[in-house]
Amino acid sequence: KWEEILYTVKLEHELTDVSFDTWLKPLKVHSFEKNGSANTLYILIPAEQQPAFGYIKKKYALPLRVAIAEITGLDCSLEFILPEEAQKLEAKKATVTSNLNECIEKANLNPKYTFDTFVVGSNNNFAHAASLAVAESPGEMYNPLFIYGGVGLGKTHLMHSIAHFILERNPETKVLYVTSESFTNELIEAIRNNNNTATARFREKYRNIDVLLIDDIQFIIGKESTQEEFFHTFNDLHSNKKQIIISSDKPPKEMQTLEGRLRSRFEWGLIADISSPDYETRMAILRKKEELDGYQVNDEVIKYIATNIKSNIRELEGALNKLMACSRLEKKEITIEMAEQELRDIISPDEKREVTPELIINTVAEHFGIRPEDIKGKKRNSEIVFPRQIAMYLCREIIGIPLKSIGTIMGKKDHTTVIHACNTIVADMEKSESTRNTVEIIKKKITPN
Ligand code: ADP
Ligand code: MG
After folding, report:
1. Where is region (Domain IV, binds dsDNA) located (predicted)?
2. 160 burial class (0-12, 13-18, 19+ CB within 10 angstroms)?
3. Quick one: pLDDT at residue 106?
4. Which residue of 40, 47, 206, 223 has the smallest Cβ count within 10 Å?
């Protein structure tokens, strides 16, 4: 396109070859920047042309701008830069990006969960609009924003999108995303250390925030000290016009054991629900995923998945992931036969969910943000070992299968390893309230109600 633009300028201004070759041809596009509705195109003038810098700028900036608008339909302001400035610009950009990445990491965000990757459908358009409004003016309009809906319908994705949006606009904002589990565990640790500095640090951390996102609040109900602490955090932030965003599996009024005063506060702002996606939305989500993963799956297969998996977007994505992995592994195209074969476990006729070792492994892996294969694997780092032990413990505790079978399921491990794992978790739960809390939450995820 750039050459086309240059030639357009040549033609329209009837430039001779020598003028064209001298002034325009050496120009290169350095970068394009979009900032809200303002576009800037940076054009690199090579070092040899430095003496002509002023001349080029004066004579060709406007013709170029016109030609760009004609050809691309974009109105850009132009910045001419020399190699030296280009370097500075790149360095600056690199620091901006790495700063932003740092902020994203500090805020505990998944880089993939943004508004760009979120598909809006009839099941979530209200929650999406509310989230965008809050992201555009945090602390001003709807406070708190309370998003509720069933498992795997996009609550966490929307919350992260709000946080990304706010940080991208203003990386200085102190944004923090936490699950109610980590909120509880941090509090437990602070109290357990039984000194005032630990508790004070906890308070300072949570009251020094501009935007607090707290996910799956249902897991703190029934825990008195956590509710109490959260109540104070909430009041502090709210009275300082700091934005609070909460998600839950139910609306506040159905949260039976939630303290009344917290419930009424949750109802102060805006409550938005997400329900199960309809067929069109399911198709759109699958298409989006396909696009993001750079994969082409035939229509018949996409329709098959969208028709058969209805209630949970995580499963919808999981089904497509499974087929893509399978096709990569077997170096075969995804066909409808492959889909029927591979998805038979997921697409069960009566959708009844039985607790299987697989379900336990998947839930534990997801909870800790690791892969199910890691749990079955041999890695010995603590980020993997602890979840693996929990998975073994839960297989024993919830479905009571023999130690030997657990060992086999968990990637051919000795039954003494399983005994050791179960004992470790039991002992750990006795010692540590935060481990108890974590195990309890995972259990609730496996067997809700
Ligand atoms: P929840 O927190 O409600 O259990 P998540 O936000 O974790 O659900 O969503 C589960 C998965 O489905 C995530 O991978 C998420 O990216 C995806 N997802 C959910 N809703 C959408 C949507 N509207 N568009 C695209 N992906 C979605
Ligand atoms: Mg979630």
Report:
1. 328-449
2. buried
3. 87
4. 47
317 Cβ below 6 A of ligand 1: yes
pLDDT tens sequence across 128-158: 999 999 999 999 989 999 999 999 999 999 9
pLDDT averaged over every residue in the chain: 91
Instruction: Quote the CA–CA distance of 142 and 243 in Å, as a whole number.
Output: 8
pLDDT for 421: 94
Residues near ligand 2 ion, CB 5 Å cutoff: 156
Question: Is residue 416 a known part of a binding site?
Answer: no
Q: Is the CB of 159 under 6 A from ligand 1?
A: no
User: Which of 449, 444, 447 lies closest to 216 in space, CA to CA?
Assistant: 444
Closest to 411 in 3D by CA, of 442, 446, 382, 372: 372
CA-nearest of 280, 325, 298 to 125 is 280
The residue among 276, 265, 277 whose CA lies nearest residue 230 is: 265
Integer distance in angstroms from the first to the last C-alpha of the chain? Answer: 59
- E strand or H helix at 40: strand 38-44
CA distances, 180 to each of 170, 183, 438 (Å) = 26, 5, 11
**Ligand 1 close to Cβ of residue 157 (< 6 A):** yes
Question: pLDDT tens, 173-227?
Answer: 999 999 999 999 999 888 887 778 888 999 999 999 999 999 999 998 878 889 9
d(CA 389, CA 427): 12
Q: Is the pLDDT of residue 352 over 70?
A: no
| Element of type H or E holding 31 | strand 28-35
Distance CA 394, CA 439 (A): 9
214-224 pLDDT, tens per residue?
A: 999 999 887 88
Residue 121's pLDDT is 95
Q: Does ligand 1 lie within 6 Å of residue 375's CB atom?
A: no
The annotation status of 411 as a binding-site residue, yes or no, is no
SS3 426: helix
The answer to ipTM > 0.95 is: yes
The candidate with the shortest Cα–Cα distance to 185, out of 202, 163, 207, is 202
Question: In DSSP terms, which residues pair with 81 in a beta bridge?
Answer: 44
